[in-house]
Amino acid sequence: MIDHVTVEFRRRFDPSRHWSAPLFGGFLYWLVFLLALEPDNVLRASQAGYVLPLGLETIRITGAAILGAAVTPLLTWLTRRVPLVGGSHFWQRAAIHLICNTCLALLLIVVSCFLVAWGFERQLAPSLAEVHSQLAANWTLLVFALCAFTTIAHLIRFIRRPDGVNTAVATNAAVEETAPAERISIKTGGRLRFVEQASIDWLETHGNYLALHAGPSKQLVRRTLTDFETALDMNRFVRIHRRMIVAIDRIEEMKPLANGDAMLRLRDGRELRMSRSYRDEVVRRWSGG
């Protein structure tokens, strides 16, 4: 049990799993972008009669690439949350990306001004004139660079979408990722334990708790029925009331009532009242239709 919890924790919260690739890819992107601009910087400095020191330029480009890489996990996350490819409302989602990139460009320029003031000018903060100068010179270019990175991220995501021969592999991976586990973790009395789905007969809300019935035993779990339902294999279970879910193979008999409801008798002899709003679905699932 401890090993299972440890593996699940690492799968969800391992930083290297989520951030290492975007950070490295972002660093390479900004490095290439800055190096592409460097010949123009050298030419303008030469025309002004000034030679850019190689060491200083190396530090500036590396630092700028690192600073740009710091925001690429956020851009990658936003690409997943607000995809441009597929679905509707393209322009609304594109506007979200543009607004975010504009704000990030402003943040990056302000942060870079502070870093230059601390590292090279030995000042606590840059002057407003310097910040304004950098914004006027670089804001539009930086917004363009962020939008270009976002576009590349969307293209990569689109190319990696399953098609052709990869459909079966991707479908199997998706099923494996989303298939409900045979065991469900529950917390009772401050302790974490697992319960086999096959052992559950039925569930019902019980005040602020969820009552889980498995054979003669009943366990109270501090979770809502709707929340617990997401962990269940709903091929095995069916909702019979807004407060109750039953294992389909435990239903022994169904007796209609006058008002459209029905009384279900389980294999252990317990009777549960089924709401008429769920009757058609329960009958279909129980009869195998």
UniProtKB/TrEMBL annotation:
Q: Is Transcription among the key words of this record?
A: no
Question: What are the UniProt keywords, alphabetically?
Answer: Membrane, Transmembrane, Transmembrane helix, Two-component regulatory system
| Any coiled-coil regions, as ranges | none
Which Gene3D superfamilies would you find in this protein's record? LytTr DNA-binding domain
Q: What is an example of a Pfam family matching this protein?
A: LytTR
Q: Which residues cross the membrane?
A: 21-38, 58-78, 98-119, 139-156
Protein name as catalogued? LytR/AlgR family response regulator transcription factor
